[in-house]
């Protein structure tokens, strides 16, 4: 998918290598996919590609920094990106609060539905036009 003639870049953060591989394999034909295995690595990638990455999707449960902590820190510097949580766990109060605060747009569950994620990304990008 393109925006202003360029392939849309997204960042996926997850501490499980298999999840990173699966996500990248699922979306690399539609998007330029960056992956990070921790919140701190994700923040570094965002800093390095701050003008390119439009969408950030993160796992919820990770060591040292959970998904919401990561989004809170990332969004303080990279406000224009769309943020989503992808979790293997049920909807909870932390995710509900993050949505109500406008910290994240939506949460998705694992195993993920490619078409659902793609449609939310397309909706976000369309709103920019």
N-to-C SSE series?
A: EEEHEHEHEHEH
Mean pLDDT equals 93
Biggest pleated sheet: 5 strands, parallel
Structural shape = globular
Strand fraction equals 15-25%
What fraction, in percent, of the residue positions are helical?
40-55%
Radius of gyration: 13 Å
Give the number of helices. 5
Oligomerization state of this entry?
single chain
End-to-end gap: 14 Å
Beta-strand segment tally? 7
Structure classification: alpha/beta
Contiguous low-pLDDT stretches (5 residues minimum) are: none
Spatial order of the strands forming the largest sheet: 4-3-5-6-7
Description:
The strands form 2 sheets. This protein has a 5-stranded parallel sheet, with helices on both faces. The protein has a two-stranded antiparallel sheet with strand order 1-2. With 129 residues, the protein is of the alpha/beta class. A hairpin with a 2-residue loop joins strand 1 and strand 2 (6-7). The chain has 5 helices and 7 strands; from the N terminus they run E-E-E-H-E-H-E-H-E-H-E-H. Helix 2 (39-48) runs parallel beside helix 3 (67-77). The chain is globular, with a radius of gyration of 13 Å. The protein has helices spanning 17-27, 39-48, 67-77, 93-100, 114-128, and strands spanning 2-3, 6-7, 9-13, 32-36, 53-59, 82-87, 106-109.
Summarize this structure as a short list of keywords or feature phrases.
single chain; 129 residues; alpha/beta; five-stranded parallel beta sheet; two-stranded antiparallel sheet; 5 helices; 7 strands
Would you kindly provide a brief summary of this structure?
This protein is α/β, with parallel strands linked by helices and 129 residues long.
């Amino acid at each position: 998918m393109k925006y202003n003639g360029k392939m849309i870049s997204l960042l996926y953060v997850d501490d499980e290598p298999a999840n990173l591989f699966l996500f990248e394999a699922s979306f690399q034909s539609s998007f330029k996919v960056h992956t990070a295995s921790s919140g701190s690595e994700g923040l570094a990638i965002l800093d390095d590609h701050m003008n390119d990455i439009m969408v950030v999707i993160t796992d919820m449960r990770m060591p040292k920094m959970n998904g919401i902590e990561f989004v809170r820190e990332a969004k303080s510097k990279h406000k224009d990106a769309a943020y989503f949580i992808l979790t293997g766990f049920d909807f909870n109060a932390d995710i509900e609060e993050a949505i109500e605060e406008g910290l994240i747009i939506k949460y998705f569950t694992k195993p993920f539905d490619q078409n659902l994620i793609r449609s939310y990304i397309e909706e976000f990008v369309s709103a920019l036009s």
